[in-house]
Design goal:
- It is a single chain.
- With 143 residues, the protein is α+β, with helices and mostly antiparallel strands.
- The protein has one domain: Maf protein (Alpha-Beta Complex), CATH 3.90.950.10.
- The chain is built from three helices and six strands, in the order ββαββββαα.
- A six-stranded antiparallel β-sheet has the order 2-1-3-4-5-6.
- The chain is globular and about 50 Å long.
């Protein structure tokens, strides 16, 4: 143990009709470290028999953990963004984030990577989880 304050996060996409797969195994869902294109194809293949938005509903989930070495407290917060998996690929998706090429955000009906800066701030699940952690006692983490 380093004795230093530690902040870590992990996340993924959960698709209820697929028993919340892939979850935190999003990058290794096919059983190996897949490329973006392989993950997009794999996801579309898994969902090809499901046509409705209800069947294709999904959520982007993040869990953030803060460990305070002085107080020995562990704080966790999680948040998610609801939406669904499109059967079309967003052509301008950001490499390294394959599920954003398929994920349409509820409320704005846009691909995640299509969100404006203002919309991203409104829907950003990582920011919301970090805001939850702000309320925990972290004043004694200074080294």
């Amino acid at each position: 143990m380093s004795g230093l304050p530690t902040l870590a996060d992990d996340g993924g996409i959960e698709i209820p009709i697929l028993n919340n797969e892939p979850g935190v195994f999003s990058r290794r869902w096919p059983g190996y470290e897949a490329t973006d294109d392989e993950l997009i194809t794999y996801t579309l293949e898994k969902l090809k028999k499901y046509k409705s938005r209800y069947e294709r509903c999904a959520r982007l989930v993040v869990c953030i953990t803060f460990i305070n070495p002085r107080s020995h407290k562990i704080h966790q917060a999680s948040e998610s963004i609801k939406g669904y998996v499109s059967d079309q690929i967003y052509s301008k998706y950001i490499k390294g984030y394959p599920y954003r090429a398929l994920f349409i955000v509820d409320g704005v009906n846009k691909y995640y990577d299509e969100l404006t800066k203002q919309e991203h701030e409104q829907y950003n699940h990582r920011r919301k989880a970090l805001e939850k952690l702000r309320f925990f006692e972290m004043t004694d983490f200074v080294i």
